[in-house]
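Quick one:
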Amino acid sequence: MRERPECSSCKVFKKSYFSTLENDDLENLKYEKSASFYKTGQIVYQEDSRAMGVYCLNSGKIKLYKADNEGREQIVRFVTSGELFGYSSITGSRYHLVTAEAVEDSMVCFINANLFSELTTRYPEILKTLLNVLGTMLNDAEDRMISLARKPVRERLAETLLNLCRQFHPEGCMNENVLNLPREDLANSVGSATETIIRLLSEFREEGLISIDGRKIILRNVTVLKKVANVN
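Output:
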């Protein structure tokens, strides 16, 4: 049986939304939240299902995506440890707008909407942080729309690798950083066919930009990748 994560000793506590909570509220959160383990490929919640609260990722990685009528995915973003997701219940929607799925074994904590609302009232800095994050997500979404409309797939792939590197390695994207995700998920992030992404990754490897070990992609030349992506 897996150990239930303790809020105060959570390894991502200091970078979570709840690091400013006083001991009594932290103890209450400990008992009011639920925690579930999801194996790779398991669904945390489905698009259009009822939104009852927010989720905090203790460990692992989660992808958020929308699927079309033929089941093809468009990945909205990835969630990493310490981040909240499933905002629908606190942003005016009663239903989830995307599907959340574990892309590696993940421990997820759930906080019901009423408790989260109480915490944001008592700790306005939580709401301020949330608004900043939502603003950043909106800017990122706008950048992605522009990229999809204007950039060829090769540039978009390089840009996506850099963006994922920054997200998975918040200490800074640099050479030797590793990205570990299925090619299909990478293709769905770029907005292209999996076969095209595999071919372009082979080209990047031949050019010395990356190396490949199974599903792991190791960045070898971030500077040139930025030039390929046409970003600063």
